[in-house]
Amino acid sequence: MNQVALITGGTRGIGREIALTLAKQGYDIALNYRTENEELEELKSMIEKEQVECLLVKGDVSHFEECEQFVKQIIEKFGKIDVLVNNAGITKDTLLARMKKEDFEQVLEVNLVGTFNVTKNVISYMMKARKGRIVNISSVVGISGNAGQTNYAASKAGIIGFTKSLAKEVASRNILVNSIAPGFIKTNMTEVLKEEIKQEIAKNIPMQRLGEPKDVAGVVKFLVSEDSSYITGQVIQVDGGMLM
Ligand code: NDP
């Protein structure tokens, strides 16, 4: 029986790459998505080409009941969840002076409360199984802060606190909880930046380039593997040396 991995926000960018990487490792994939798009079925077939199963589960992670619902669907199909990757995330960048309360709340609701909503619904199954791996996608700005991102940085710093606290709660049950803090990764999220800005950012990164989704997916692969069986409560930066 294959291990089962749930990835939230798996339709594109980093989440999509994580799903494909874990499928290649032989995990059955439960792929959470919020918005239907034409590439979803194509992604499902790509995953299934790896001789694993793929279940698409719709749901907005910021809605607790929807998370409850899609976790039930996964349990009905596979009977267990071995790996949870809380990846779904959004930005609504602007300086605090201009930020609307809704912009602050929405980013917290998706990034931080969403991580709670999904984890809360999954953890009881992992506790019963006395086994599990959880990887929460934070960001380097959750460590360093970033002008124009008070909402996003607060949500990502919150994820780090959440990760460490939960790691302490469930370590004795053989559930390992870690966080990844990516730097600038080439996805739709960073595509909005102007080319000059991206070049400027790259200049300030010791490795002189933005990251690729596979740079993050490779670390997820490690964190859910037997090779990381004595690592919990950590924040692993994947940022080309940007923040040291
Ligand atoms: P993208 O914008 O490319 O993808 C985000 C994914 O999350 C999409 O599939 C999106 O689905 C989904 N999503 C958004 N809101 C929700 C929701 N409420 N419920 C379910 N799914 C949702 O972003 P990235 O791939 O770049 O980012 C992935 C994660 O990595 C995020 O948590 C992000 O904060 C983090 N990160 C990214 C960095 C980067 O440089 N790219 C740097 C540091 C961290 P939909 O199509 O419905 O919007």
Characterize the structure shown.
The protein is of the alpha/beta class and 244 residues long. It has a single domain (4-182, 214-236), classed as NAD(P)-binding Rossmann-like Domain (Rossmann fold, 3-Layer(aba) Sandwich). Helices cover 47% and strands 15% of the residues. It has helices at 13-24, 39-48, 64-78, 101-129, 141-144, 150-170, 188-191, 195-203, 213-223, and strands at residues 4-7, 28-33, 54-58, 83-86, 132-137, 175-182, 235-238. The chain has a seven-stranded parallel beta sheet with strand order 3-2-1-4-5-6-7, with helices on both faces. It starts with a strand and ends in a 6-residue tail after the last strand. Bound molecules: NADPH dihydro-nicotinamide-adenine-dinucleotide phosphate.
Structure characteristics:
244 residues, alpha/beta, Rossmann fold, 7-stranded parallel sheet, 9 helices, 7 strands, globular, binds NADPH dihydro-nicotinamide-adenine-dinucleotide phosphate
